[in-house]
Amino acid sequence: MTERHPAFSTLFDLEEAVADVERYGDLLMDLGCGDVELTRNGVYVTGKQLKLLGQNVERQWKLAIEQTRGGR
């Protein structure tokens, strides 16, 4: 049996984070279509979580690229 390349595990670990990006998009579209007043704190905390999520996705993506180039 051949050993799976470590980049595959890194990319598989991104699956939930990528799905979360889509979920946040759904949330924002729902909020934009409804007759809802948003608070500054509510918008801020959503933006903060999206930023953290994006940073994590970027970090994992860079790790996967590095792994494909031989850096394990």
Detailed description of the structure:
By secondary structure, this protein is an all-alpha fold. The chain has one domain (6-68). Helix content is 78%, strand content 0%. The protein is built from three helices and no strands. Helix 2 (15-33) runs antiparallel to helix 3 (40-68).
Q: What is the N-to-C order of secondary-structure elements (H for helix, E for strand)?
A: HHH
Number of DSSP E strands: 0
The description of the largest β-sheet is:
none
Round the Cα radius of gyration to an integer and report it: 17 Å
Alpha-carbon distance between the termini?
Answer: 20 Å
Low-confidence stretches: none
Q: What is the percent of helical residues?
A: over 70%
Name the structural class.
Answer: mainly alpha
Strand share of the residues?
A: under 5%
Mean pLDDT comes to: 89
Question: How many domains would you count in the coordinates?
Answer: 1
Helix tally equals 3
Give the overall shape: elongated
